[in-house]
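Quick one, tokens below:
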């Protein structure tokens, strides 16, 4: 399963059926537009390059897997500088777009899926923080 970021793609990668249309930015993986086709209403007025945010706990803090309000952390977001690839898949009555980002030492893959007759867009998120052994201690997902 390879992601191709070098390959030229249309100005937007689109998941669409009779009910909704979701347009993704091929440069950042962000969602550009969500359109309800039945009532011609756009739900997303302003698009963003930022698809996901990763919160990194600072090293040397409490060993709990949950962050407390008093623990320092950094928030790092996805964007054009972190995208590793975007891919459109069509499989019968189902279409999906997979977006892969590497945010520091964390791989984040988002898979958006749309069925032909469904008004619902589903999203699965996979986080791999094992690329840097010390990072797995710092990331709360």
């Amino acid at each position: 399963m390879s992601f191709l970021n070098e390959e030229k793609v249309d100005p937007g990668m689109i998941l669409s059926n009779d009910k909704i249309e979701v347009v993704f930015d091929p440069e950042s993986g962000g969602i550009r537009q969500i359109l309800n086709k039945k009532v011609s209403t756009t739900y997303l007025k302003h698009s963003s390059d930022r698809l996901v945010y990763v919160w990194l706990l600072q090293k040397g803090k409490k060993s709990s897997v949950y962050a407390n309000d008093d623990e320092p952390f950094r928030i790092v977001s996805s964007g054009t500088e972190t995208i590793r690839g975007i891919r459109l898949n069509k499989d019968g009555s189902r279409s999906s777009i997979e977006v892969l980002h590497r945010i520091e030492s964390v791989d984040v893959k988002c898979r958006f899926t749309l069925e032909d007759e469904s008004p619902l867009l589903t999203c699965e998120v996979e986080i791999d923080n094992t690329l840097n052994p010390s990072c797995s201690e710092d990331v709360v997902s």
